[in-house]
Amino acid sequence: MDKNTYTGLFLIMLILFGFFYLTKPSEADIKLAKAREHQDSLKRAGIKQAAATAKADSASKTIKLDSAALRSPFGATMAGTEQFITLENDEMIVKLSTLGGRIQSVELKNYKTFDKQPLVLFNGVQNHLGLYFTAAGKSINTNTLYFKQVSADATSVTLRLNYSPNQYIDYVYSLPKTGYKLGFNIKMTGLEQIIPSNAPLTLGWQASLNKTEKDMTMERQYSTVYYKDTEGEVNNLNENKDDTIQIKDKKLDWVSFKQHFFSNVLIYKSGFANASLHVSSDTSMKGEVKQTLAKVQLPNNTGGYYPMTFYFGPNQFEILKAQGDDLEKQIAFGWGPLKYINRWVVLPVFGLLKTFGWNYGLIILALTILLKLVLSPLTYRSYLSMAKMRILKPEIDEIKAKVGEDNPTLLQQETMKLYKKAGVNPLGGCLPMLLQLPIVFAFLRFFPALFELRGQSFLWMKDLSTYDDVIKFGTNIPFLGDHISLMCLLMTISTFIYTYFNNQISGVTGQMKYIGYITPVIFIVVLNKYPSGLNYYYFLANMLTFTQQYLIRLMVDEKKIHAEIQENKKKPEDKTKKKSAFAQRMEDYMKQQQQIQQANKKK
After folding, report:
1. Do 375 and 307 fall within a single domain?
2. 108 and 193 in a common domain
3. 301 and 401 share a domain?
4. C-alpha span between 26 and 32 (Å, rounded)
5. Is the pLDDT of residue 176 over 90?
6. pLDDT per residue as tens digits for the range 15-43
7. What is the pLDDT of residues 240-267, one digit of tens each?
8. Which of 265, 285, 320, 484 could form a disulfide with 328 if both were Cys (CB 3.0 to 4.6 A apart)?
9. Sequence-distant (≥ 6) Cβ neighbours of residue 4 within 8 angstroms
10. Are 367 and 247 in the same domain?
């Protein structure tokens, strides 16, 4: 590669890595923004008021009602005693509360938090599930009313909110013996005259998502509200800041309060209408990742029956896909081409390797070897092109001495003539590397989103899904945090070595020789808090590239290449060969620049 090409490639790398780093907000920025906006956002979403009301009602188990309150719609349910009912199967424990008939908590039995504690997705009075409607001219919020348990067995519970003995609302929860789905059916009986058919019936669902992973920053980065509309499109709210969206033109099949590695999904096949979705985070809350809220409208023409389903479980691709309803589309495999590379290439290969039952460190090694074998033709072409450029360097230096560097246009013209005569493509060394960049960045999204790495150890890395903090500082250092990941450090060192050998192959000199060493510095700043599995992959990729280049060097006879170049230079130019449009434009541009320079000299 010549100086300009090398500079262009470096700038592309710098821009791409800078984009991923700079678009990620710092903790300080988030704290300042939350301090100004959090209270207002919670009020708009109705979270703060609902939580305060629930705490007050839960604290006062018995409330004396006057006669006016008793005569109001559902007045007798305004006071009561909160009781808890538990449903349990092989995968999870669901605790229900008679206050609001809500889901109090969900614990996944087969998983633990990063510190080996029971994994509870959400728990407490700040979590709500209730109806909002008008009855007999009064606004009703079932979250503040007391239900009664009217039936229960090993797999289901019915909680009832009485208006009268023959008029009531039932919440029916059903949990099969296995699986991550919880049935949730709403049945309204005898309320046709109480709730107008044209009145909106709104379902509100709110949850404060508990911290389950080691790195809160990464967990927040991958947690937000996802939703799928009835046309099959899956979208999500912003992951990096508070966000609210109103959806009135489409119905939603499901709404998901997605965490990094687990999801809480509410599915309704008939479609939710007029959805209002909200997500926010309070960085002062060390045990809560984000606060989520969904308010959706239910149709009033179903005879008062609304069959729904919850999914509470891991964000493992195969498990989500087995549930149906495109739940697997929540997994953040990246944007644009990155998503398709990960979904249709990397994931199937990873799944195939997983069937051998190897340690995940060995699976990543095998995946890297396969990838390098597939890309080996590009690596070979890149090495060969850089070798040709290095061989031509003495002749390029002669051109520089003859023309002088004060006339860059003529220098470029003469250099391009030399390339053309020698049959060398100056971009031949860069293009194969650029073609590999989408794969490099695809893995930057693949490994952080991969559930299988969660809790898996390899060598000193206790959890491949998060950073290894073997080197701890005991205090926060700007750009690095409170640690250095040992695997990230090894990956950075290998990148320094790779840059050194690449400079030897390309023959780059002067200041350009040292510019490439900036990239590893960017790596250790950006990737220090990324999963150790990702840094392990990049380390392996560097080491395998060294091996490939060594083997290619044994295969390539540079004396033979030099002789071929000299033979190509002796061949007469084929004037009948049509130039490409790009080459013609470049030639016209150079001639134009040369004419401008000559005109300036005459002045």
Report:
1. no
2. yes
3. no
4. 10
5. yes
6. 545 544 444 545 544 444 444 444 444 34
7. 999 999 999 899 999 999 999 999 999 9
8. 320
9. none
10. no
